[in-house]
Amino acid sequence: MKRYPDAIRMLVAIDCIIFGFDGEKIKLLLIKRNFKPEKGKWSLMGGFLKQDEDLEDGASRILYNLTGLKDIYVEQIMTAGKIDRDPVERTISVVFFALINIHEQDQEAVKAHNAHWLSLDKKPDLIFDHDEMVVKALEYLRYKAALHPLGFELLPERFTIPQLQKLYEAIYDMKLDRRNFSRKILLTGLLIDTGEKDNQSTTKKAGLFRLDKERYKNKFYSFWHFMPQPGIK
Amino acid sequence: MKRYPDAIRMLVAIDCIIFGFDGEKIKLLLIKRNFKPEKGKWSLMGGFLKQDEDLEDGASRILYNLTGLKDIYVEQIMTAGKIDRDPVERTISVVFFALINIHEQDQEAVKAHNAHWLSLDKKPDLIFDHDEMVVKALEYLRYKAALHPLGFELLPERFTIPQLQKLYEAIYDMKLDRRNFSRKILLTGLLIDTGEKDNQSTTKKAGLFRLDKERYKNKFYSFWHFMPQPGIK
DNA sequence: TCAAAAGTGTTCTGTATACACCCATGG
DNA sequence: CCATGGGTGTATACAGAACACTTTTGA
After folding, report:
1. Which of B147, B163, B143 is CA-nearest to residue B155?
2. Which of A67, A68, A119, A189 has the most other CB atoms within 10 Å of its CB?
3. Got the DSSP string for B140-154?
């Protein structure tokens, strides 16, 4: 193999910010490290890129090992490259953003990695520059969810409109008007009424909907103006 | 220095997509390579990340070497990591997106690198995965310019509203209504009327404006709804 | 029968769009 | 004096926001 003689080689890590939704709050899947370095502290789930794998495949591998899930919504959001970000050795980290349905995870696998779902307001300090990554990821989630219908990735296959509303309220940490939300979301044409009712609730049962996956793909890039944008002058 | 024993080290490259605007079309600054590998072919400007520099500093270094400019608008947009993307050796490439005022560049430096400004429709095929990077960068430019006022980075300090309109028309490859454009852009409050007139034009002279830099910073994230979005249902 | 949550409708207002008219300049 | 391009104004339609009333359910 020919080589570039003068250039420096370094480690390439992959770190994953994994968002979930428990019906009330946005949660992060974090690792309580029982390995070195920084044993005992909290971090994102990560690993090193292998010689024979693409970046996206590396992220999928890491997510699969942790959650037992394939076909997760994953997106690359940034690459961190500060000189001393990993004190052990110069390491570039490619950061991925994943949305998973919190109820579909493989409990065993998650437990085996000593991983825990923590809500954002209870997030402990993380190692290295992982806190910055979480901030970026949250910004990104808000930015993207306002323009594209990716919230569905966090919900079960069948869900009610009030559930969906709670999700958006959690993402943006704001209250939304029930009636306007419902009208807007139905007007997108992305929801299919299953005709069934939610039997969890103790009062009036809300209708269960599912995502129209074909339309979802086609409309993914035409979801603009979804969130209200109060106070923008 | 302690080390992670099992992980693989690899090269980290930086590639820059450099956009400019000549008053009519969006242009790309590309290199006709007079060095190996792929000598004689076209590529993006790039280089390897050094042991003692941050990613952003690396990008700035590369851009400075090529254009003689500092304080350019630069943003990291993606990281390419396909196994065989560089046939010489496994290399990760962090891609940066730069907007420069085409008239402020250091002509000498550009010439010395055998770099040329080519408009998008005349772009030759580029080496490796650089074509994909350009596609991503253009998507990103369109995405971002619709939401944030970054077009100004491509114009001289003082510019006319018709110039600015031509810029947006070039970015989105569409015609805009003169009157609505002018009203909208003035309503943002980002433009300051210098009182001067453009003396380039042969007919009625357009007023010269400059950017209100303070407001620009504050309003950077509240520029939503700027571009018309025809046909979105 | 009552409280809590879900479903539906209406009004108002602001903003985007389409379009018409007038003004300045140089050939 | 006229063609070209720049500047300003107005009517209309549509979408978002605010808000009221009715229905369903289980306790």
Report:
1. B163
2. A67
3. HHHHHHHHS--GGGG
Which pairing describes strands A91-99 and A9-21: parallel, antiparallel, or unpaired? parallel
Residue A115 lies in a domain: yes
Q: DSSP label at B120?
A: G
Binary contact (A55, B92; C-beta < 8 A): yes
Q: Judge whether A15 and A130 are in contact, CB under 8 Å.
A: yes
> Strand C closer than 7 Å to the CB of A176?
no
State the nucleotide closest to A226 in CA–C1' terms.
D16
pLDDT at position A221: 72
* B167 CB burial (10 A radius; 0-12, 13-18, 19+): buried
Q: What digits encode the pLDDT tens for the residues A53-108?
A: 999 999 999 999 999 999 999 999 999 999 999 999 999 999 999 999 999 999 99
> Which CATH number fits the domain that encloses residue B202?
1.10.10.10
Closest residue to C4 (CA, C1′) = A203
* pTM for this predicted structure: 0.93
Percent of chain A scoring above 70 in pLDDT: 94
Q: How many residues does chain A have?
A: 233
Query: Does A156 contact strand C, using a CB cutoff of 7 Å?
Result: no
- Chain A residues touching residue B88 (CB < 8 angstroms): 1-4
A179 CA, C8 C1': separation in Å? 9
pLDDT digits (tens, 9 = 90+) for A1-24: 567 888 999 999 999 999 999 999
Which strand (E) or helix (H) includes residue B118?
A: strand B115-119
The answer to the question of residue B226 being in a domain is no
In a domain, A5, yes or no: no
Whether A180 and A215 map to the same domain: the answer is: yes
